[in-house]
Amino acid sequence: MASAGVDRKVSRVPLRYGFLSTYPPTQCGLATFTAALREQLTDCAPGASSGVVRLLDAPAGPSPPRAAPTGVVGDLVAGTPGGPQRAARLLNRFDVAVVQHEYGIYGGRDGDEVLEVLRHLDVPLIVVLHTVLVHPTPHQRHVLEAVAAASDAVVVMTETARARLAAGYEVDPRLVVVIPHGAADNRRATPARSSRPTVLTWGLIGPGKGIEWGIAAMAALTDLDPTPRYLVAGQTHPKVLAREGEAYRDSLVAQARRLGVAGSVSFDGRYRDAASLGALVRAADVVLLPYDSRDQVTSGVLIEAVAALRPIVATRFPHAVELLGDGTGLLVPHGDAPGDRGRDTQHRHRRQQDPGVGPGRRRTRPRPAVARGRPPLPAARRRAGHPDRTQADPGEKRTEQAGGGDPMIADVSFAHLFRLSDDIGLFEHALGAVPRREHGYCVDDVARGMVVLAREPDPPFELVRLLKRYLAFVVAAQSPDGAMRNRRDTAGRWRDQPGLGDWWGRALWGLGTVAARAPTLRARDTALGRFRASARRRSRWPRAMTFAALGAGEVLLVYPDHQPARDLLAAAVTAIGPPGVDPAWPWPEPALRYANAAVPEALILAGICLPDEAVLASGLRLLAWLLDLETRGGRLSPTPVGGRRPGEDGEPGFDQQPIEAATLADACARAYDLTGQTRWLTGLERAQAWFLGDNDSVVPLLDTLTGGCCDGLEPHGRNINQGAESTLALLSTAQHARRLLAAP
Q: Which residues contact 599 (CB under 8 A, 6 or more apart)?
């Protein structure tokens, strides 16, 4: 009986494994993972065999074709007619199919070409999920659920991934198995250390890796003796290289030079085999994983660092939280240059290596400090959007959100904003995610950047420094009579004459916000003085006066006796004009144009600060009308770039721009802070969801890889360029959502 039992068990072991995945020589983590998994599975049972159907973006090799790598039985080239069916026929020759799933490796929308492969499989299917998004688009959710429904087993590598599947997807939990990511044992003898401690980041390089934060951290560690060395090892990701060339790597080199740490930051772009990479990791004093992503549930680099017993500093991406949260490593917030944490890890590790080694000797140059002194604000002004950072108002209570649940909150970072910025200002345009330097800078966008940075609570040093740079740009644009230039080239030359157009209004908005909210006293004082110099001017353009009113309102919420701001705000109310008498079109203009919700927000601020109850009521009424007009089927459908006139309320209009959603979020947040009515939270939720894919084209504008925002929503997709205006619109909306919509 025992013998018969053993025979039956062996007969059920699948001896032929068919893999569907990227595969070496393709350079990506998934290809490396599959090669290692294939080796282990075929080695664990005598006589086992395997083959790989390799995923490619384009046909491999020139004509005549090169021989396929060992073990590759065929290729699935994205978008090839009949390709999925041929791939399925190849996999059906094996006893079991092992399919790696990542949205970006398959053809079709969100990689939905994989579904056609799975429909034609006749053998048992094991799917390994490498990404489980917290906030997928509806189509991304559909793809993953369909993949899971076709599977006999679903493998994830972390408990976080399993929990996300259970909470956010219709997947049979009985199919889901957690098998932790493995790595080769790299616990060999530690090589001799160099005189300078080495901080190491490695892997394929591209936007979203957060290397900007590592370089910024080096600038915060220059007072150590010896100064640490930051080594970034790895080639540029092939897809990034094809799309953008070496623009990202070049921007990192430029950042190191700009921060004065070029001698402490080095880049090794060589390809390393497993032995060479293992030696490199063992030689590191600290491994730094500063990833921007908050969705990453699996990281092979993290596992390899743990396997080498290296001290690790990582952002709080899910796999790091799960693996390092017990104190195995140090976790830091996203968007934080972890200078002190890297210093602590480095010293702790060195004491473990040599008890006689203490902390590095400090030089006498002091570390930068941020002054945060500010007079307390009255409760009414806190409710108008200026929280008192020194104490809470016990009389204020947060109104319950409609629906009772937490809405989607975008996981965004400032990484792309840093990518678009240099030591002069903020580049206006981008080609994809690469700044278009030839187009230069404009006050319009730099002023928007000032608003976003000044509103950020407890900003890290790098954001404070960026705010100072933007403020200096606007100060340089101001003429003695209070007018503003707008356009500047990369040589620092102004390309236009001072004027009072929209850029003047936005400059006043930025100056007023910095004067009221900036984290340093010097920035607040500088901005307030410059605001006063321009506030005496008046523009003949109502929209310019609207933007200026937003800055005047910010000043008055903190400095209620500031007469130039009061006079400017009153003049803006006159320039905007009274609401229309037609209840179907109460808008004070003959057509909706752009940044429309700034108009009711300006009136709301005027009603609060002047004060004027009638103006306040007009602002709230116009905002309610605009929100209703721009809501279609429960989702936001903003006014298109060409505007909207009375009677034009049929099909959705295109192209839709992020600035429309952002100004609506601004106004709804302002109205909620004043009234506590949940209808305004609903408007903010719709604006936030618009960026994440709940829009007329069902396409997300947020690029989770870069942290940027696409420039527009088109009828069948999105404009993939990620310029300053759109990225700031995303960041601004996310700030409001984080403050008002996140679970308490």
A: 546, 576, 588, 589, 622
